[in-house]
Specification:
With 382 residues, the protein is mainly β. The chain contains three helices and 26 strands. The strands form six sheets. The chain has a five-stranded mixed sheet with strand order 2-1-26-25-24, with helices on one face. The protein has a five-stranded antiparallel sheet with strand order 11-12-13-14-15, with no helix packed on it. It has a four-stranded antiparallel sheet with strand order 3-4-5-6, with no helix packed on it.
Length: 382
């Protein structure tokens, strides 16, 4: 298992003076290691909060990179994570509480904790059926945006079962009751040759990426084009935003042939029996159900209200990061091998692969603008 380290780096130009000290969490204590990082956030107290699905703790670090405390942990009770993977967390608009959600087979509620990690309350979802919550965003008016996913539907086509799931953005009130459905999309990203089992992910599936802009609106993209869609709380499309991302690429037969070869090498080598029974369905998937490859792989809003996008490139293991104004006007862009980049009020976080092929979570403290901070991060990555 590869360990993911957490590094603190200060850059001199536009930032605090170089400290000459590289802090790698976990070098002195196993408790500080981040094995499987989920959300990475700057807290209202300027501390750094990272969820680690390895042990189901939200780990809190000081701006100097020192572990302060751990919040949550795996367990059945309120204030704990029942399901470690698929969890998501954030801070309430007043900055006084931490909240978190869990995916399918996790707790059926939103958990609220104080900043020390003590339980404040839970809000149970008043939603029927089997579903999972991937993301939640509390609004200042007391309502909560939820990203809900529902599974279970399958269709048979040309000897392949396609698993269909729906993604929705809902709003609920403080009692957990659904008030509105802003957006709903159906997707298929897994296949099998039998109903209900042995499924396998397929390439180039559409995305369901969204952010709340703080004005009662949702910015959404399925990742396939340069058009971002803006919806109001009632689900009406208000406008589109054109962003300067790479051009669409058609999924080719060569793309699928490469995917089949890579998958077969993995499963035939390690799970021959499984592949013989289930995995051979990939040999039948010779025509993509998606015309285009996703262009946009991630989206966030920065503290200044700009749009920050992670995009696909034609170069292997490289991504294009694009910063635009809220109307889509380009501010800056860069191609990098960084796996993730995030801008917060005081930091720029990034994940890269070290020479030892280990992932490192790093951050730089910002004292200049967002563009300058990104330039320094990308310069460092090269």
């Amino acid at each position: 298992m590869k360990t993911i380290f957490f590094a603190l780096i200060f850059i001199c130009t536009f930032f605090l003076p170089l400290t000459g000290k590289l802090i790698i969490l976990g070098s002195n204590s196993p408790e500080e290691q981040i094995i499987y990082p989920g959300e990475i956030l700057e807290g209202p107290d300027t501390n750094i909060y990272i969820y680690d699905s390895q042990d189901a703790f939200i780990k809190v670090f000081s701006p100097e990179g020192k572990l302060i405390r751990k919040i949550g942990g795996k367990g059945e009770g309120p204030g704990q994570f029942k399901r470690a993977d698929g969890a998501d967390f954030g801070f309430t608009p007043d900055g006084k509480q931490i909240y978190f959600t869990e995916f399918i087979r996790g707790h059926n509620w939103i958990t609220y904790l104080n900043m020390e990690g003590e339980l404040v309350k839970t809000v149970k979802y008043n939603i029927k059926g089997s579903y999972g919550i991937l993301h939640a965003v509390p609004h200042r008016n007391g309502s909560i945006y939820l990203h809900k996913e529902t599974y279970g539907k399958e269709i048979l086509k040309s000897g392949i079962y396609y698993s269909i799931y729906s993604s929705e953005i809902l709003t609920i009130d403080s009692s957990g009751s659904v008030k509105t459905t802003i957006l709903k999309r159906e997707h298929s990203d897994r296949i099998s040759f039998i109903r209900g089992g042995g499924d396998m992910g397929i390439p180039f599936s559409r995305k369901f990426i969204w952010v709340a802009n703080g004005k009662g609106e949702i910015i959404f993209t399925d990742g396939t084009s340069s058009q971002l869609e803006v919806y109001d709380i009632k689900g009406s499309l208000k406008k589109t935003i054109t962003v300067p991302v790479p051009e669409q690429e058609i999924v080719t037969k060569e793309d699928l042939a490469k995917w089949r070869k890579e998958k077969k090498a993995i499963f035939v080598g390690n799970k021959k029996a499984w592949y013989k029974r289930f995995g051979s369905v990939i040999e039948k998937y010779t025509r993509s159900i998606f015309k285009f490859k996703p262009v946009i792989l991630g989206m966030s809003l920065t503290p200044s209200g700009n749009i920050f996008l992670k995009c696909r490139t034609k170069e292997k293991d490289k991504f294009k990061y694009v910063l635009t104004k809220i109307d889509g006007e380009l501010i800056s862009e860069s191609i990098s091998e960084l796996q993730r980049v995030k801008i917060t009020k005081n930091y720029v976080f990034f994940i890269r692969i070290s020479e030892e092929e280990e992932q490192e979570i790093s951050f730089m403290k910002r004292s200049g603008g967002e563009t300058k901070g990104l330039c320094k991060v990308f310069d460092l990555s090269h």
